[in-house]
């Protein structure tokens, strides 16, 4: 006799907040795409900078917040990609806008051999090891005189392109990169590989016992994070028009990324978005205070993590059950 009993639970992957959020996001993206026609150059440059910080922070969050691999050296790929973009544009005649994705892809390629070194280390040693790799990159580029050495070099390949065209194309590329970062991260975390990544973060031993290829999954995330960091670097220096070893490989990139993530919530897609907005506001109105500004960022991050251990967004998510990007599947009792 066939069992026709209805299941007691249903599996929910979407929420009302996520559906409303999707509509709002589409409207915001369409509205933002019109900025080159009405916003000033300063606003376009600011968007480029904060968007690149957001992309970099999202990749760090993917690596550490979801993968459990805390790195303080992802700026190695950011600076490497920035330099490659300018070298290809200035010396090889590659269109600078075309050089951006190529440089990001090459950053992912170089991450493969570097992973052999980084994955030999665990925990805090992994974090320090990634920072050492970034410092090796910085010192190497600082000692190559053909690319400006320690003083860096300028992006001269854009001189023949009108300023308005250059700024508009850079803005649209950056906006597309932000949308792609959010969309692809969300898609990845909802896939089987994303579920495997979350399991590895919680326990590598238990994951292996369930048949998950831990090494392959960690390598995939490491390479994806390197690509994202490289994309952020190429776009940032495309808008900045100049690069130097100290700017490209500065540990401040990771420090600011950690600030944006910790203040809003580690291991959430929403965290870097809202963290980037807060960071932009603080940077815009308080950056002139120099060292005190950096001290204030640190104190604010400490205060938030002490009061809200999962960040501000983590608190909102738990208190009001608002999930704009629901990753986990939830069992909902049938009424």
TrEMBL record:
<feature type="transmembrane region" description="Helical">
    <location>
        <begin position="124"/>
        <end position="149"/>
    </location>
</feature>
<dbReference type="GO" id="GO:0005886">
    <property type="term" value="C:plasma membrane"/>
</dbReference>
<keyword id="KW-0472">Membrane</keyword>
<dbReference type="InterPro" id="IPR043428">
    <property type="entry name" value="LivM-like"/>
</dbReference>
<dbReference type="GO" id="GO:0015658">
    <property type="term" value="F:branched-chain amino acid transmembrane transporter activity"/>
</dbReference>
<feature type="transmembrane region" description="Helical">
    <location>
        <begin position="169"/>
        <end position="189"/>
    </location>
</feature>
<feature type="transmembrane region" description="Helical">
    <location>
        <begin position="292"/>
        <end position="316"/>
    </location>
</feature>
<feature type="transmembrane region" description="Helical">
    <location>
        <begin position="219"/>
        <end position="239"/>
    </location>
</feature>
<keyword id="KW-1133">Transmembrane helix</keyword>
<protein>
    <submittedName>
        <fullName>Branched-chain amino acid ABC transporter permease</fullName>
    </submittedName>
</protein>
<keyword id="KW-1003">Cell membrane</keyword>
<dbReference type="Pfam" id="PF02653">
    <property type="entry name" value="BPD_transp_2"/>
</dbReference>
<feature type="transmembrane region" description="Helical">
    <location>
        <begin position="50"/>
        <end position="72"/>
    </location>
</feature>
<keyword id="KW-0812">Transmembrane</keyword>
<feature type="transmembrane region" description="Helical">
    <location>
        <begin position="92"/>
        <end position="112"/>
    </location>
</feature>
<dbReference type="InterPro" id="IPR001851">
    <property type="entry name" value="ABC_transp_permease"/>
</dbReference>
<feature type="transmembrane region" description="Helical">
    <location>
        <begin position="251"/>
        <end position="280"/>
    </location>
</feature>
<feature type="transmembrane region" description="Helical">
    <location>
        <begin position="20"/>
        <end position="38"/>
    </location>
</feature>
